[in-house]
């Protein structure tokens, strides 16, 4: 089963009558239904509850054990999952995208799979090949969701390189890229030739296994970009940790040599720049200038960054300088400088320079829209805005409402495809130290109502009641799991209160037997 998460992106452009600042007073919320707003308020309060933030994964595992995967999943779909995710099937996603298009918005899909820098080393290439297949399907789905591209002909998709190449290899390459003078063996042109020709690439400082993995990784990257180009899908390579980013930028530069030439209608491969890093402005200025001198198209997704705590902790443990900006204000200033730099490049280079203003910050969006008007960037210019769905809808909806074009044309970058995984708490998988789970005998199951297909409408009603209790009662404690379980039993499944014990001891026809 495929699941699609999404982000929102709205393309804005100067109004012929003068610049009108976007209105972020929340008026755009009239486009949402009462149920959506109630769920959003509930999720906001839940995500602001410190115990849930701190112990979220443990609570999810606890929920699966007590409620069962089906009921636990239904609860998530009616609350947090439904707030941030487009759907579980292609049909659900298609319906969501059609709704977004009426609001002047488009989706951007992604495969949110990556390796953490300290993760265990994968054995063989099977995991990466599986991710490759998921990405190729994601390209096809991105194309299928928007059969008629916007006026700029753009469909966007996010790409995680560490889903196709190991973090250990990226770290090893980074250690050489950072050396003075770099290594000629790692020039973007040489890597591009290896990807294009398919010939073996031997790097002297890598061992045989690492060289083999590098060659396989380059092949996977080439296949994804080649397929995306054929489907008219532009790929936005995501930035990650500073220990990996130099290698990621090197690989993007190699892909750009092959796919971002003006004759290809590029840029088909974009890079992501994180404004919360101290060196981002200089790197962005250097890379933009290098692309200009090489006659290559240049695509940028500009973000603030998402790994602040880990970057600072890693710098502390290694005794190195903190690579991040000292505070929030410094990050805002960095983002503003990078944004101004890129807006001027777009105004100067036109359609060969593309920019996504990926920000939830209202002031950054105002700055971008105002400067677009002042620089006379055309209505169909290559600038778009991106926000995560459910995170900053008042900004996304306001941009969509302010779209002066006769038909919706924003691009949608959204995170994307997740391969389904086996339920870790299914009866066939017993965790160490956990009592084995056995099926009830048929005679025992006859006394229980059928819970194979929960009533989702009734479940959503329970979530609303549960949410109101959460909002109104100051001392949460264990009140809400109990109230929700009781409401679900009575309203949705028609159970008697005494049947609640079955719900709390495994559900779905299972019981716990202690040996």
Explain the layout of strands and helices.
Blueprint: E1 2-5, E2 7-10, H1 34-47, H2 50-54, H3 56-78, H4 80-84, E3 85-87, H5 90-102, E4 106-110, H6 126-145, E5 155-159, H7 167-177, H8 188-197, H9 208-230, E6 233-237, H10 245-259, E7 269-274, H11 280-294, E8 298-303, H12 308-318, H13 328-349, E9 353-358, H14 362-374, E10 383-388, H15 393-401, E11 417-419, E12 437-439, H16 442-445, H17 456-472, H18 479-492, H19 500-504, E13 510-512
Parallel strand pairs: 4-5, 5-6, 6-7, 7-8, 8-9, 9-10
Antiparallel strand pairs: 1-3, 1-11, 2-4, 2-10, 12-13
Give structural notes:
Keywords: FAD, Flavoprotein, Oxidoreductase, Proline metabolism. Residues 197-400 form the Proline dehydrogenase domain. It is a single chain. The chain is α/β, with parallel strands linked by helices and 515 residues long. The chain has two domains: 2-419, TIM Barrel; 437-512, no CATH class. Helices cover 48% and strands 11% of the residues. It is built from 19 helices and 13 strands. The strands form three sheets. The protein has an eight-stranded mixed β-barrel with strand order 2-4-5-6-7-8-9-10, surrounded by eight helices. It has a three-stranded antiparallel sheet with strand order 3-1-11. A two-stranded antiparallel sheet has the order 12-13. Strand 4, helix 6 and strand 5 form a beta-alpha-beta unit.
